[in-house]
Amino acid sequence: MKRRLGVWVAIPVLFLMLGFIAVLATSEDSGSRSVASPLLGRQAPPIVGETIDGGAYDLATSSGDFVIVNFFATWCTPCVVEHPELVNFEKRHRSAGDASVISVVYDASTESVRNFFADNGGEWPVVEDPDGRIALDYGVAGVPESYLIGPDGVVVTKLVGGVTSSGLDRVLAEAQEAYR
Length: 180
Fold this sequence. Notes:
Layout: H1 2-26, E1 33-34, E2 48-50, E3 56-58, E4 66-72, H2 77-96, E5 99-105, H3 110-120, E6 126-127, H4 133-138, E7 145-149, E8 155-160, H5 165-179
Parallel strand pairs: 4-5, 5-6
Antiparallel strand pairs: 1-8, 2-3, 4-7, 7-8
Helix pairs in contact: 2-5
């Protein structure tokens, strides 16, 4: 008798949990939220390093532009889910010339990152962080985390959780308005 009662209680709880997960997964900014950071309003820490294609990258060369800095790993499910959103955002804003994207590898092998980008697209610099120094300088607690850097090199926003293209558009529009 107790066993049947447990099943009858568990089934509605399971459906409520699945409904809650579905609502969160389909919300416009599923998972992404702007959070406080000691970096907000300060010069962004430098990002200088080798890219996965063997090139060199220096965030300082992006001065004058808005830049989304995305910390990610290929084994991170929310990172994989957000990637097409970043691809969409980057394509539209590259053609508009008002923002760019860079990714910083967080604890993933160069080969797995190369394969990930080959399979999933993305035409922006992907900077290696072999000793974790860049992530440490940004205070990254886990992935995905993204930062919006203003044209003056100042950290405007920190986002934790997977981002969406429309959510990034909104954050960028607010920042552009503030910079006028």
